[in-house]
Amino acid sequence: MVNSKISKSELGSTFDTLFFVYDNVLLLDNYESDSITFSTKNQERRMPFKSFFLKKNDTISIDGAYGLFGGFGFSLKIVNEEPILYHMLSGDDFPIYSRTKDGKLHFRIEVPCTETEIILSKIPDAIENEVIYGMVKFKSDIYYSASSVNGDIEPDNLQENQVGMTIYFKSRYFDFEDFRKDVSSNDNKTNTIYDK
Questions:
Q1: pLDDT by residue (tens digit) across 28-71?
Q2: Cα separation values, 136 from 33, 62, 194, Å
Q3: Long-range contacts: 69-78, Cβ < 8 Å, 24+?
Q4: Are 166 and 1 in contact (CB under 8 A)?
Q5: Within 13 Å of residue 25, how many CA atoms lie on the same side as its CB?
Q6: Domain of life of the organism in this record (predicted)?
Q7: Is the pLDDT score of 163 beyond 70?
Q8: Is the full-model pTM beyond 0.85?
């Protein structure tokens, strides 16, 4: 089922060494006052989607998001084989999301979900070259987002949001520690060049 929802992306080869990037069907219901205001479920709209998983201490995190740098999608935390599913939102340039109407704006938030369904080909072991497939379905709690007018964020005019999503995904292991070492190593090389 996953392969029928995803397809190769022109952007995929750019990020292949880090995580999967592919085009994915967007299946989303937008809610206002608990009523659906619009839905993409009867469309075949595809958007760039990225997915990876990693392990930190006793938690395996599987993330998947529409969009390349910021984006929206899911974050699945597995602790002692018990999954907790969140709707994940991440801003590109500015902190625009809040869990509460009068709360501080954040670049990234994870919103608790209800009506969840999770299917995984396996619980990942978080080892190199490991690939998993899955599907998550959820309805998010209410959260808030700031709109931008001519590049200026309007924190006093937050919009209430709530979504239902079904996301099919393919994910691969992302070794964050190796990535940090590579970035640090490249930074040191760059500094050496500029110090001469």
A1: 999 987 889 989 988 878 999 999 999 888 999 999 999 988 89
A2: 23, 11, 47
A3: 70/107, 72/163, 73/49, 73/165, 73/167, 74/136, 74/138, 74/165, 74/167, 75/110, 76/118, 76/136, 78/123
A4: no
A5: 17
A6: Bacteria
A7: yes
A8: no
